[in-house]
Write a structure and sequence with these properties.
Blueprint: E1 5-11, E2 15-16, H1 26-39, E3 51-55, H2 67-74, E4 83-86, H3 92-105, E5 111-119, E6 125-126, E7 142-143, H4 163-174, H5 178-198, H6 225-228, E8 256-265, H7 269-273, E9 279-288, H8 298-309, E10 316-321, H9 326-336, H10 349-352, H11 359-374, E11 378-385, E12 389-397
Parallel strand pairs: 3-4, 3-5, 10-11
Antiparallel strand pairs: 1-8, 1-9, 2-8, 5-8, 6-7, 9-12, 11-12
Helix pairs in contact: 1-2, 3-11
Length: 403
Amino acid sequence: MKQAYLYDALRTPFGKFGGGLAGVRPDDLAAHVLAAVVERAPSLEAGRIDEVIFGNANGAGEENRNVARMATLLAGLPTSIPGTTVNRLCGSSLDAAIIASRQINAGEAQLVAIGGVESMSRAPWVLPKPARAYPAGDASLVSTTLGWRLVNPAMAAEWTVSLGEATEQLRQRHGITRERQDEFAANSHNLADAAWQAGHYDHQVVAVPGTGLVRDESIRPGSSAGTLAGLKTVFRAESATEDGGTVTAGNASPLSDGAAAALLGTEAGAELLGREPLARIAGRGASAVEPQYFGFAPVDAANLALKRAGIDWGEVGAVELNEAFAAQSLACIDAWGIDPLLVNEWGGAVAIGHPLGASGIRILGTLAHRLRASGRRWGVAAICIGVGQGLAVVLENVHATRP
C-alpha cells in the first residue's frame, strides 16, 4: 500500500460575516488558494495533478455546480485535471483529505490537490418550488447560511433543533458550565493573537487580492472571561437553573468566509513538487451520534483514527479540534482525558472563524505545522459535523525529533 503524505497547506485569512471577504465569490476564493498552493511547489508541472477534491457545505449559491472543477478552471490549471466536490457539512474538506489519501493508498493517484471553501456572507436565500403552478398564497424565502432548512416533516423533532440548542443540550448532559465556556473562548482569542504575533501563520495564510485582509478578522486580542460573561445568551434565556442558557456569540464560532487548499501525494511526490513532506496520513476515523449531540461525535472518530494508526492518546503531542462551540470542545477534551494545553495551541475556530467547507483543511494544516515546530511525532485533527457526525485524521510528523 502506498503511503499518503501532506506536502503543503495554505489558506486565506478568515473573514467575518459581511466583512473583508464578503465581496469575493466563493469560487474565486477557492481558485485563488488553489493556484497559490500550486505555485508554492517549485518543480511542479500542474498537469501532474491527478485530481482536485474540494469540500463545501452550502452548494446553493455561486459555489454550485461542482466548485472543485470551477476552481480548477478559474485557477488556470490544465483542463485535463478532473475535480469533484464533497459535502459532509463542517467536515467537508477534512473528508476531501480522507478521500484523497485513500486514492493514494490504493495506487490510483500520485498527487491530489485538496481544499475547501465557504462564503457564509454570500449564501443565498432560496425559494421552494410550489407544488403546482400559480399558487394563490404567499411563499417565504429560506436562508442557506447555516443549519437546517426545508426540513423533511418525517424527521424526528429532537434531531432538528438549532445547532445552538443542540449545544445547550450537550453541555447539560456533560455538565459544562458557562464559566468554563467563556474561559475557553477567551483563551482561543488570546492564543490566536499570540500565534499571529509570533509568525506562526505567516507561511500558512495568503491574502486575497483587493480585500486588504491580511489576518483572521474575528480575533479579539485581550479577551477575558469576565468580558465574555457580560454577553447575552442566544438560544435559551438566562436562568439560575440548569435549563438556563449558556451559549453566546462570544463562546461560539462566528459565521465566516474563507478557503483553504493542500497537496497530498505519495513518497514520489517530493520529486514532483520539489519539497519534502510535512506529515504522513497515519489514521482516519468517522463516527455518528444522535443529531442533537453532533458536538460530541469527534470523540469516537478520533479514538478510531488513533486505533487505526496503532497508537494511543498517551503518544499524541498536538491536537487540532475545530471549535464549533466552546461547550462541545470542552466535552470532547474531557472525554479524551487529555491535557487541554495540547489542544489548539495557536487558537481555534471561536477566534479564527469557521467557514464550514474550509475548516477541515485549516486544522489539518495547522496541526502539521505545530508538529513541525514542536518536533513531536503524533497529532490528531478532529471536527464535529452537523446532523450528528465527526471526522478525525492522525498525522505522523516525518521530521519528528522527539516522541
